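User
Class, as today's exercise, I want you to study this protein, comparing sequence with structure tokens, and judge whether sequence predicts the tokens.
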Amino acid sequence: MARIAGVNIPTNKRVVIALQYIHGIGAAKAKEITAKLEIAPERRVQDLSDQEVLQIREAIDASYTVEGDLRRQTSMNIKRLMDLACYRGLRHRKGLPVRGQRTHTNARTRKGKAKPIAGKKK
């Protein structure tokens, strides 16, 4: 099992798909990495040599912010907005949708399970 950026990537999957298991690498970046290193995207991780895995690891470390650093950066950005007390920060603080979605109905992912209001009968 290959370990890249602190993540065990699956060995029986294609390289492009396996790289997407790393937080911060999606389809476009995975294709870009394999193209830059001239690794055929249809090859499986188990078919890669140790040298190729090392090349992938070095390319990711040099060019991309992934895993823990990316998560830390995202959380620091959200914390900064909350400290500024700007509109987006207040929405984060209250646990409501941040990007202008409606909240009269829906928004259950952000708001959590519906709470009944006592004494509200029609």
Remarks:
- Strands lie at 2-4, 7-9.
- The mean pLDDT is 91.
- Residues 67-84 form the longest helix (18 residues).
